[in-house]
Amino acid sequence: MDPSKWDFYTMDCYRHVGEDRLAATYAEEVIRTGTTPDGVVRRPMRVAEAHITLGIVAARQGELEAALAAGRTALALDRKSLPSLVMHSRELVAELDRRFAGDQRVVEYVDLLRSLAN
């Protein structure tokens, strides 16, 4: 395995098994190592998925605004692989629907995601 992807894959694994504290720790590391000190994102897809992970963790903790902000950040990054980003964003949407069903802010986020997918 490419050593530079270790934190990324570890983040994914912890997110999938519900180890939110560890998933968030690795997501923050992926963002840190994928971004230059002056704020240029060098690994946009890894960083985008890390933001999605932070959004999922926030949603699981009942923090709707933080979850939506993380999701929007992921969608706003340049150089997206839309199929991959949409797939990972669906996990965030599922968590938002589970915890905040019917909230207008969630509906708006889903609409934003749909507009990017079309």
UniProtKB/TrEMBL annotation:
Keywords: TPR repeat. TPR repeats lie at residues 48-81. It comes from Dactylosporangium aurantiacum. It comes from the Bacteria. This is Tetratricopeptide repeat protein.
